[in-house]
């Protein structure tokens, strides 16, 4: 629940004093993506227009009819669904351009050129999913994965790792570290899109189940 609200939790153990849990949540809703916000109005919250007192009617005054204007409709909290955001973390510009060309018709795409920039953008835009190369300067994909899983604010975001290697040990290591998929180059657009659709569908199902329990 804390992850869904882009909050953080810190746990401190104090000897002979117990454990302290510190939870931080941002105020308002500006930090949410449109796809993370839903609007629901219960029947007992609807404006009771029909129950408003009617004006006094006599022979000299015609009966006034209640009217409904656009301002009476609850529009501020209604947010339309928007495309999921995919963050590409890749230092090869040719591959970045190829991925953007393949994905931009379906998703909102942002780019970071290495793991350091990738972590900064993740905390800034909170993408729905991350595609990262394994081998990069400054910080490679594996090291970035470690830091993602240690950060409560972004640890819930699924990560797909791209690699030119086909070593089973590297694949096993990446999956154990929390990668949701490990794709060897070259790969087809259809395979990558299928992985994205599956992971995003699983994440949406998790959200719906979580909200239904609150």
UniProtKB/TrEMBL annotation:
Pfam families: Response_reg. Residues 60-72 have a biased composition (Polar residues). Residues 85-200 form the Response regulatory domain. It is an enzyme of class 2 (transferase). Keywords: Kinase, Phosphoprotein, Transferase. GO terms for molecular function: phosphorelay sensor kinase activity. Coiled coil: none annotated. Residues 45-79 are annotated as: Disordered. This is Sensor histidine kinase TodS. It comes from termite gut metagenome. The lineage of its organism: unclassified sequences, metagenomes, organismal metagenomes.
